[in-house]
Write a structure and sequence with these properties.
Layout (H helix, E strand, L loop, with lengths): L4 E7 L6 E7 H77 L29 H35 L16 E4 L2 E4 L6 E4 L2 E4 L5 E3 L4 E8 L5 E8 L2 E6 L1 E4 L6 E2 L4 E5 L9 E8 L2 E3 L8
Antiparallel strand pairs: 1-2, 3-6, 4-5, 6-14, 7-13, 8-9, 8-12, 9-10, 10-14, 11-13, 14-15
C-alpha cells in the first residue's frame, strides 16, 4: 500500500481541463505526518508563548515589588540616620548640661550609640539578594537605638533631679550666643595672626559688622568696663560659682560696673578696638579664672 501509486486529479476550470499527479502512498503518509507534527508543534509553541506571557507579567510585578521594597529600605535607612543624629544631639546636650551641673559623665557615654551601624547601610540601591540581610541589620540597629533612647531617658531624669536642686543654675550659666555672626577663630592653640607664634586662643572670635548688638549670655554682675590693653574696649561679667565671661574689641558698652544684668539683656556693641584684624567679638568663658571652651556651655 505504501508503495502503490495514487492519482490526484485537479480540475482547473469549468471547461473540464485538469491536471493529474501521481504520488506514492508513503509520500502521502509522510506529508500527513508532517502536517500533524507541524500542527502539534504550533499548538505546543502557542501554549509555551502563553505561559511565557504569564511569567513575564509575574516578573514585571515582582520587579515592581522589588523596586518598591528598595524605596522602602532607602526611606527606612534615611529615617534611621535622622534618629541617630537626633540621639547624638540629645547626648551632646546631655554632656553640656552635666558640665553646667557638675555631674559626672555616665560610664557608658558613647558619642556613636549604635557603633556606626547605619554607615554599613549607606548604599541607596540594595541588590535583591541583600535585602533580607539589610532588613535584619536595620531591625537590629533600631533595637539598639531604642535601648540607647531608654538609657538616655534615665540620664535626663538624673539631670532634671539635679535641676530641681539648683533651680537658678541655668539662669546664671552662659548658655546662649552673645551675638550673631560666624566663628572666625575657635578656642584652643593657633598661630597668632600678629606674631605667627603658636599660642592659646582663650576664647571665640565671632565676626560681625560693627555695631552688632551683644547680649548677656546669662545673669550676672558687671565687674569691669573700659580699655584693657590689646583687648581694646572690654567688659567682664561675674555669673557666680567661679564662672566669668569677657567681651573684647567692643565699639562701646551700655552697662556700668556693679550693674546686674539678665540673660538676653543688651550689654554692648561689636567693634574693632584694641589689637584686632577686623570687627569681631572676642568672647571668653573662665571657670575659677581658667579659660575654657565657651561652646561647652552654649545650648542654642
Amino acid at each position: 500500500m505504501l508503495f502503490k501509486k495514487y492519482q490526484l486529479v485537479v480540475f482547473k476550470d469549468k471547461n473540464g481541463s485538469c491536471s493529474t499527479f501521481s504520488l506514492r502512498g508513503w509520500l502521502i503518509l509522510f506529508t500527513l505526518l508532517l502536517f500533524v507534527a507541524m500542527a502539534g508543534s504550533n499548538f505546543y509553541l502557542w501554549q509555551y508563548y502563553q505561559e511565557h506571557r504569564i511569567v513575564s507579567r509575574q516578573l514585571d510585578r515582582s520587579k515592581d515589588t522589588v523596586n518598591s521594597q528598595k524605596i522602602q529600605l532607602t526611606t527606612l535607612f534615611h529615617k534611621i540616620q535622622e534618629l541617630e543624629k537626633s540621639l547624638e544631639r540629645v547626648q551632646e546636650l546631655d554632656g553640656k548640661l552635666r558640665v553646667m551641673l557638675n555631674l559626672e559623665p555616665p560610664m557608658d557615654m558613647n558619642p556613636n550609640p549604635a557603633g556606626g551601624t547605619s554607615e554599613n547601610l549607606s548604599s541607596a540601591s540594595f541588590p535583591f539578594y541583600r535585602q533580607e540581610m539589610l532588613t535584619r541589620q536595620m531591625h537590629s540597629f533600631l533595637d539598639r537605638l531604642r535601648s540607647e533612647a531608654r538609657l538616655e531617658e534615665v540620664k535626663q531624669q538624673e539631670i532634671l533631679h539635679a535641676l530641681h536642686k539648683q533651680r537658678d543654675l541655668l539662669s546664671s550659666t552662659p548658655s546662649i550666643w552673645p551675638t550673631q555672626g560666624w566663628v572666625s577663630s575657635e578656642f584652643g592653640y593657633r598661630s597668632s595672626p600678629f606674631t605667627g607664634q603658636r599660642e592659646l586662643h582663650k576664647g571665640l572670635d565671632i565676626s560681625a559688622p560693627e555695631g552688632t548688638p551683644i547680649y548677656a549670655p546669662a545673669s550676672g554682675v558687671v565687674t569691669f568696663t573700659g580699655r584693657d590693653g590689646a583687648y581694646g574696649i572690654a567688659m567682664e561679667l561675674d555669673h557666680g560659682r567661679g564662672i566669668t565671661t569677657k567681651y573684647a574689641h567692643l565699639q562701646r558698652y551700655v552697662t556700668e560696673e556693679n550693674t546686674k544684668v539678665s540673660r538676653g539683656e543688651l550689654i554692648g556693641y561689636v567693634g574693632n578696638t584694641g589689637r584686632s584684624t577686623g570687627p569681631h567679638l572676642h568672647y571668653e568663658v573662665r571657670v575659677n579664672n581658667i579659660p575654657v571652651d565657651p561652646k561647652r556651655y552654649i545650648l542654642n
